[in-house]
């Protein structure tokens, strides 16, 4: 017995046909589930040159191998497709209860192709899978639609359903839209919401209650007991968040210390990801003023965004499925300036950074409003923030006029103008409509390409590669470029991958100085990062579990116990390598030229900043480092195309001949 459901659901919105297909065991052995299963299926079934917003694109929803086994931090689901934003591989990831809901319907993944003639939702309860009319929900924001579906269906289902749906941004085909679940949590990246909108698929409603299983539940229980003890071990007096910004200032002056998993888990429990904001502002990690500012520009802004302010208005914490940490929270925001809502999710670090320091916006209250507005619309806050930053810099430099911006004075830190512009982007009105497809399209239309911060078409996550050059390699080399969740030099030390993988270099690298060079060792660090991340995604794991390191979150032991296997770390890292190579092959099939994907000049340090922790830093070696990374993967170091020998070694040719049936 393994943890896999063993089947996928294939739905054609054009014909209305839904069929259950068995997946050969060798596929699970090769790529696990989650993003691996998606990579296998989408590489094989999306034709070359498919229109991302056309019927040939396939939208996949998958849970990971460990979902439902009792392994901690394994409740993430991944949505994947051909991205309309980049034209290549696209994926996004979210938590909540939707991942186990897929497995409880008897599937590891759901693949949706075609386009419906009128709005529909997919209903599945483990016995039946059918398309239903969604006309009455079309036009609702993501939270309204989810609420209305619950009101209509809860009593009629044996189990309260889990729902993933799009808001207005997805319906209006904004290329920076995502897919929401559980009241505005969002799988935000790669324009996945626009693909769902193009298919006129408003929601996926899952109400199955089939059992989930594993090969060795006792072993998993023991591993989770040990992990739970470690995760909850560290406690500190409350109120320490005010010192985090000071810690960021000191970072450049202290010797390199690998982060410890216990400290990371404490930070997530106490504050969530927003703990990073004031640290990022002062340390050089967080981009300021459209990636061109220095801490001098935002002096003491770390106190505005210190995490204790947000903790004070937190009314409840929440957890993803099978996670004892609970980094999510609900906030009471009633009556705050700019705010039209009573409640919002605790904003993630990425959201605060993208609408705070990136725009020189000093209003924390406005962040609550923007967070709720964008979650309801289902728009990616990272992409939206980068796009607004571009608009402000264009306006400040006379590239955009008042006439073009519908009268909005887009100066740095103009909170009212930022709020008004985002509302227009969500509604696709006037100037907001013109820039609602992200910064690349906006700059192609209006100019200001030098201020447009995108990598291969996608806006980068809120971490500065000049502070972590390893991240600069992943921003470029990742098949979904610009994602910040594939690997960072500053996390490599904590992960201790060298203890499970014979070729992963020892974790003793300073993330700033030595990383500026191009060495074989560094190429294997970035390869190890990428392979392990793909493995985590195949397992359905949380990136924050990954950050805690292999001695705390024992992924290899968990997988062996779940599947009844006895593989070592090298074997599992090869699974990660296979998934990443499949995603790269997907891009090659779709006509992407990996060598054309580059960091914007500003992110390379051209020109270099004149003060602050990133003073004088340039990433001159980034291009060579990307080539070395490709070489370490067995891909051509000039073109990024996987070499024939690599494809054979990983058994990909054989794997793509196998089909579900
Ligand atoms: S750490 Fe946070 S995001 Fe990760 S599984 Fe737990 S609650 Fe979800």
Structure description:
This protein is α+β, with helices and mostly antiparallel strands. It has three domains: 200 residues, Aldehyde Ferredoxin Oxidoreductase,  A, domain 1; 178 residues, Aldehyde Ferredoxin Oxidoreductase Protein, subunit A, domain 2 (Orthogonal Bundle), CATH 1.10.569; 189 residues, Aldehyde Ferredoxin Oxidoreductase Protein, subunit A, domain 3. Helices cover 40% and strands 11% of the residues. A six-stranded mixed β-sheet has the order 2-1-6-3-4-5. Strands 8-7-12-9-10-11 form a six-stranded mixed β-sheet. The mean pLDDT is 95. The structure holds iron/sulfur cluster. Iron/sulfur cluster (SF4) binds next to loops.
Assign a percent range to the helix content. Answer: 25-40%
CATH superfamily of the largest domain: Aldehyde ferredoxin oxidoreductase, N-terminal domain
Number of domains: 3
Q: Regarding CATH, which class of the largest domain?
A: Alpha Beta
Query: What is the makeup of the main sheet?
Result: 6 strands, mixed
- Calculate the terminal CA-CA distance, rounded to whole Å: 20 Å
Low-confidence stretches: none
What gyration radius follows from the Cα positions, in whole Å? 23 Å
Major sheet: arrangement of strands:
2-1-6-3-4-5
> What proportion of the residues form beta strands (DSSP E)?
5-15%
The gross shape turns out to be globular
Bound molecules: iron/sulfur cluster
Number of helices: 28
Helix and strand content put the structural class at alpha+beta
DSSP E strands, number: 15
Mean pLDDT across all residues, rounded? 95
CATH fold field value of the largest domain: Aldehyde Ferredoxin Oxidoreductase,  A, domain 1
In CATH, the architecture of the largest domain is: 4-Layer Sandwich
């Amino acid at each position: 017995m393994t943890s896999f459901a063993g089947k996928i659901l294939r739905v054609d919105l054009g014909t209305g046909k839904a069929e259950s297909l068995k997946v050969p065991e060798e596929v699970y052995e090769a790529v696990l589930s989650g993003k691996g299963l998606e990579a296998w299926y989408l590489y094989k079934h999306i034709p070359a040159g498919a229109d991302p917003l056309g019927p040939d694109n396939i939208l996949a929803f998958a849970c990971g191998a460990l979902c439902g086994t009792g392994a901690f931090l394994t409740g993430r689901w991944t949505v994947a497709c051909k991205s309309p934003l980049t034209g290549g591989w696209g994926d996004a990831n979210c938590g909540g209860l939707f991942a186990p809901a897929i497995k409880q319907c008897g599937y590891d993944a759901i693949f949706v192709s075609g386009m419906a003639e009128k709005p529909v939702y997919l209903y599945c309860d483990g016995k039946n899978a059918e398309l239903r009319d969604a006309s009455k929900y079309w036009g609702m924001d993501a939270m309204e639609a989810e609420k209305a579906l619950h009101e209509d269906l809860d009593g009629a289902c044996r189990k309260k359903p889990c729902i993933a749906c799009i808001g207005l941004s997805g319906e209006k085909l904004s290329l920076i839209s995502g897919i929401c679940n559980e009241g505005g949590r969002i799988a935000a990246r790669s324009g996945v919401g626009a693909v769902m909108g193009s298919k006129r698929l408003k929601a996926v409603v899952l109400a199955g209650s089939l059992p989930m299983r594993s090969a060795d539940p006792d072993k998993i229980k023991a591993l989770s007991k040990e992990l739970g003890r470690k995760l909850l071990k560290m406690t500190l007096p409350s109120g320490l968040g005010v010192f985090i910004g000071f810690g960021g200032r000191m970072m450049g002056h202290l010797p390199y210390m690998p982060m410890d998993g216990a400290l990371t888990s404490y930070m997530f429990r106490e504050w969530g990801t927003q703990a990073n904001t004031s640290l990022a502002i002062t340390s050089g990690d967080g981009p300021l003023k459209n990636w061109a500012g220095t801490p001098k520009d935002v002096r003491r802004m770390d106190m505005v965004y210190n995490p204790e302010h947000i903790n004070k208005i937190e009314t409840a914490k929440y957890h993803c499925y099978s996670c004892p940490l609970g980094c999510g929270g609900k906030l009471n925001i009633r009556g705050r300036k700019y705010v039209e809502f009573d409640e919002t999710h605790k904003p993630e670090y990425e959201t605060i950074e993208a609408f705070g320091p990136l725009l020189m916006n000093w209003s924390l209250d406005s962040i609550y409003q923007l967070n709720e507005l964008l979650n309801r619309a289902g728009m990616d806050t990272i992409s939206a923030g980068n796009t607004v930053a571009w608009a402000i810099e264009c306006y400040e430099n006379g590239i955009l006029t008042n006439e073009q911006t519908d009268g909005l004075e887009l100066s740095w830190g103009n909170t009212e103008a930022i709020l008004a512009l985002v509302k227009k982007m969500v509604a696709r009105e006037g100037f907001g409509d013109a820039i609602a497809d992200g910064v690349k399209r906006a700059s192609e239309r209006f100019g200001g390409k030098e201020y447009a911060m995108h990598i291969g078409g996608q806006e980068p996550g809120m971490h500065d590669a000049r502070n972590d050059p390893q991240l600069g390699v992943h921003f470029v080399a990742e098949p979904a470029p610009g994602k910040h969740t594939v690997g960072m030099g500053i996390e490599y030390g904590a992960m201790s991958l060298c203890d499970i993988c014979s070729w992963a270099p020892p974790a003793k690298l300073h993330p700033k100085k030595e990383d500026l060079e191009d060495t074989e060792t560094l190429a294997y660090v970035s390869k190890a990062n990428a392979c392990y991340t793909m493995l985590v995604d195949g397992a359905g794991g949380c990136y924050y579990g990954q950050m805690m390191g292999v001695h705390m979150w024992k992924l290899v032991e968990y997988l062996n116990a779940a599947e009844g296997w006895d593989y070592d770390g090298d074997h599992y890292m090869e699974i990660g390598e296979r998934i990443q190579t499949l995603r790269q092959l997907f891009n090659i099939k779709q006509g992407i030229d990996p060598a054309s994907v580059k960091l914007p000049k500003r992110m390379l340090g051209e020109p270099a900043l004149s003060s602050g922790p990133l003073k004088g830093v340039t990433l001159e070696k980034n291009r060579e480092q990307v080539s070395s990374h490709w070489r370490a993967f067995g891909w051509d170091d000039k073109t990024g195309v996987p070499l024939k020998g690599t494809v054979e070694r990983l058994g990909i040719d054989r794997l793509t001949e196998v089909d579900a049936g």
